[in-house]
Amino acid sequence: MSRQSRPKQLIPFFDGGCLLAAAAGRLGDTVATENRYVCSAEQYHEAIATVLPGWSAENFIGEPMGRDTLMAVGLSAAVIAQRDPQAIMAVFPADHLIQPVEQSRRTIELAYALAEQHSDVLITFGIAPTTPSTAYGYLEIGTEFAASGIHRVSRFREKPDANTAGEYFRAGCRQYLWNSGMFVWRAMTLLDCIRCYRPETARRLDQIVQAWNAPIRESVLQQAYAAAEKVSIDYAVMEPASNDPAISVLALPLAVDWLDIGFWPAFGLTRSRDEAGNAITAPRFRSPGQFSYAGGVGRARAPAGGRRLRGSDRGSYPGCDVDLPR
User: Fold this and answer.
1) What is the CATH number of the domain that holds 203?
2) Residues 124 and 238: beta-carbon distance below 8 Å
3) Strands 257-260, 121-127: pairing kind
4) What is the pTM of this model?
């Protein structure tokens, strides 16, 4: 969905609005505007500022290259902790759709309260599976934490094959939740975990944050990122933390309608359908087939037939094959 010139989070999918703006809007008063940070590729700095009115450009954390979520989240934690060592931070990917917003905010507030009360917790939000999906990782639920009714994560499960996903789904949401990739923790607690499980990454983050307010920041960033490993926060931190007796990884159920817009079929599920089951947002497009999606911003053209659609939009989107569920 993303292109180098414009990532999916900045594409105006929804009546001129983008996923990033929607993510910021969901926070409401839960996080003050001056306390909101955006971590993204450096090249999108100006574009991000245009879709987030009132947001402080000082809170932009620009990456010189992609190194997966360990570096992105770790750097964000390091910058935040430098400014406020007692800070509690949340991580919200900007490619999710969540409803109802009010329930989401209440659950986030609960997570903040838990992190305030307990310095040794890493909190991840889990979603009750609605299908035996192979598109998401899963949280295996363990023992109860501090008689709170909230449970620990006993194990992080990678994206499963179809048979395994079916087993997880049949076991029910008391045993397995989808891993949403959203988190809350004390910034210093996360940094301590990185220092314990990934000391080389911690050393690079220390180098960057020491130069953050200095003229050499860009050169230090480049050197540190070029040498950094490319690994996810789940694999590098959350999985080992779930086996660390000094840390409690908690699964906080998020009772909302949740969709990770990571690929075209997922976005197609957000669109209304015509009588043939086609989800169409591109102007002047008609499909003779069924259960297809066509969308565009700018010049769109797409041949279609049957249940599969090959779409090409020179204005905004690359070609994509789409299968929509009935």
Assistant:
1) 3.90.550.10
2) yes
3) unpaired
4) 0.81
